[in-house]
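Hi, here's the filled form for the chain we discussed.

Project: internal
Contact: R.S.
Residues: 108
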Amino acid sequence: MEDDMDYGKDMTLEELENLEEVNFEIDKSAFEVNGGVCRNCNGRLLKMVENRDIGNWVTLHFKKLKCNECSKEYLDLNNAEEYDLLLNLEKAFKQPINVLSQKISGLV
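And the returned structure, exactly as it came back:
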């Protein structure tokens, strides 16, 4: 952000006066990661959907990128948060029901 203070510093007064305002729109999918290069092996990353079951009653779907060379997997920030929730739910449902119910009642 400090560089913003230097914006136009190397421009002449005439160049600064001739600047025009530009309007633009950012597509809502602009921040989605849809491909790339693997940091591990420089292989191509392919978008895929993983389905994960929690118990026998719910299936969660989330997108991730998988390298077609080394099979390393990557998540964007939104999907990483969802994956973290998935791991916490899996951990909670692996506990005996009496332990889980005690923890839940302690939260209420």
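Let me know if anything looks off before we file it.
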